[in-house]
Amino acid sequence: MLAVISKFQNFYRLSVAYLYKNNPIKMFLNTIITNWMELVSQNKKLKIATYRVNHLKYRLYQMEQLIEQGNPYNIAEGKKLDRLQ
């Protein structure tokens, strides 16, 4: 009878130690908090991403304008090269 009680006590100690190290309630609350923080910060991340896309579009537009200015086949802007020569 004592052996059975000691086995239950050992099992109880092991289970308490496991739950102390790996607390499922604490892990659940941590995941809820991290998901909430991610949800809140999504708007800021979206603004940063749209700013980057718009900035890259502007830089591409600038590059296209510079290419178009130096293009000798363009009727309006190609005469600048002839004047420089």
Q: Overview of this structure, please?
A:
The protein has helices at 2-21, 24-69, 79-84. The protein is rod-shaped, with a radius of gyration of 34 Å. The chain has one domain (2-84). It contains 3 helices and no strands. The chain has 85 residues and is mainly alpha-helical.
Care to give the gist of this entry?
The chain is mainly α. Helices cover 85% and strands 0% of the residues.
The mean pLDDT is 84
Query: Which oligomeric form is depicted?
Result: single chain
The number of helical runs is 3
| Low-pLDDT runs | none
SSE pattern: HHH
Distance between the termini: 109 Å
Task: Name the descriptors.
mainly alpha; rod-shaped; single chain; 0% strand; 85 residues
Helix/strand layout:
Blueprint lengths: L1 H20 L2 H46 L9 H6 L1
